[in-house]
Amino acid sequence: MTDTEPSARESAVDAGERDADADEPNAEAARRLIRARGAAVRRRELRTALSRLEARGGLASEQRRVVEEMAAAVVDGVLAAPESTLAGGETDPDAVRTALALFESER
């Protein structure tokens, strides 16, 4: 996250992203932000891994495909539980805040 980029929490409680009945973050907006953060981490780590592997002699197209699929699978696995919690219906505001806190910054 850059200094000018809002945090996930700030973005999710943006004026247009609050639940109509409460001053709470919107679960769907939080889910989208978490998915976007996961995609950004996947791209960054995939770029790093492919660069390191290329420096060691390159990759065949099949090897590259396997690494790309693995990166996507890891991100999908990590995000499955919070996305499931935030998906559809009524979501506890504390669950939304917790999910945002977990994915707010890249560590």
UniProtKB/TrEMBL annotation:
Output compositional bias ranges, type Basic and acidic residues.
1-19
Checking Pfam families in the record gives:
GlutR_dimer
Extract the coiled-coil ranges from the record.
none
Question: Domain named Tetrapyrrole biosynthesis glutamyl-tRNA reductase dimerisation: which ranges?
Answer: 33-103
The segment annotated Disordered runs over 1-27
Tell me a GO biological process for this protein: tetrapyrrole biosynthetic process
Example GO molecular function: glutamyl-tRNA reductase activity
Under which name does UniProt file this protein? Glutamyl-tRNAGlu reductase
Q: What is the lineage of its organism?
A: Archaea, Methanobacteriati, Methanobacteriota, Stenosarchaea group, Halobacteria
